[in-house]
């Protein structure tokens, strides 16, 4: 009976893991396809581009704020000892800037290039750790960094297909990669500060963090996209009023934006479930494989052909990431 109970429990655990993998993959791969569609597609008989990609960040903030509020009401209660909303005021600035830079990069580089660049998060972490704090890394960790840096650099230097280049609004690889790396820098600060908030307020749930971050993110983006353009008619940055008018004229774009935002919110559900049931290392493994599949889907479904050398660069990057995950698993077992 005990053995049967353990077998049943193990089978249920495998089912939950499969459910988490399917949820994360489907939500974020779909979101990636929609992000690429909105940055490259021409809508309507006038074949106009959706030029206000930063609006996606604002819409994502609003939808995730509403979603997290509903989740707190349904599944948990905001503890009196959780972090107050004011604690997210500062960190939400970098959380507003970082993702916006990442989305804007799609004007200048392809979606596979953006995914690869944003997968190299370990490089700035190791550089900052070595230069600022004198952290000593092992030879395998340096090999991981070399594989990722070499893969991203090689991919950036290789010629992009003419079919992919025609889809981009303003092809400019140096600017696109710079925006991605700035995104990583801002994300690094954001993640570290969120961890600090969590350590100071242990009763803070993932939903509380999601609520606080998106509350302030919605306010900051609303100011940038609606109030500033209203006060300054020559505001050169993203204009929320123009984005809303574009969605009214092209309902297909509005629908894509809504589904894009819902995928992000639902994906967070599965990430929270994965971390709570299986730990952050399992979640890292799932999200890393998801990024690789996003590149495959972009190449096959969205028509972004990659050369054999580019695929070699992709394999090089994900070999480095896989080695990093393997090292973490070994440390965990030890």
Describe this structure in words.
The protein is an all-alpha fold and 334 residues long. The chain has 13 helices and two strands; from the N terminus they run αββαααααααααααα. It has helices spanning 2-40, 54-75, 91-104, 111-118, 122-133, 139-157, 162-167, 173-200, 206-231, 240-249, 251-278, 280-300, 308-333, and strands at 42-43, 48-49. The chain has a two-stranded antiparallel ribbon. Helix 1 packs antiparallel against helix 11, helix 2 (54-75) packs across helix 11 and helix 4 packs antiparallel against helix 12 (280-300). The radius of gyration is 21 Å and the shape is globular. The mean pLDDT is 86.
How big is the Rg? 21 Å
Unreliable residue runs: none
Provide the structure class: mainly alpha
Q: Helical residue percent?
A: over 70%
Residue-averaged pLDDT: 86
Number of helices: 13
Largest sheet: 2 strands, antiparallel
**N-to-C SSE series?**
HEEHHHHHHHHHHHH
Number of strand segments: 2
Bulk shape: globular
Distance between the termini: 32 Å
Proportion of β residues?
under 5%
Order of strands across the widest beta sheet? 1-2
What is the topological layout?
Elements: H1 2-40, E1 42-43, E2 48-49, H2 54-75, H3 91-104, H4 111-118, H5 122-133, H6 139-157, H7 162-167, H8 173-200, H9 206-231, H10 240-249, H11 251-278, H12 280-300, H13 308-333
Provide a compact summary of the structure.
InterPro entries: SCL35B1-4/HUT1 (IPR013657). The protein has helices spanning 2-40, 54-75, 91-104, 111-118, 122-133, 139-157, 162-167, 173-200, 206-231, 240-249, 251-278, 280-300, 308-333, and strands spanning 42-43, 48-49. The chain is mostly helical and 334 residues long.
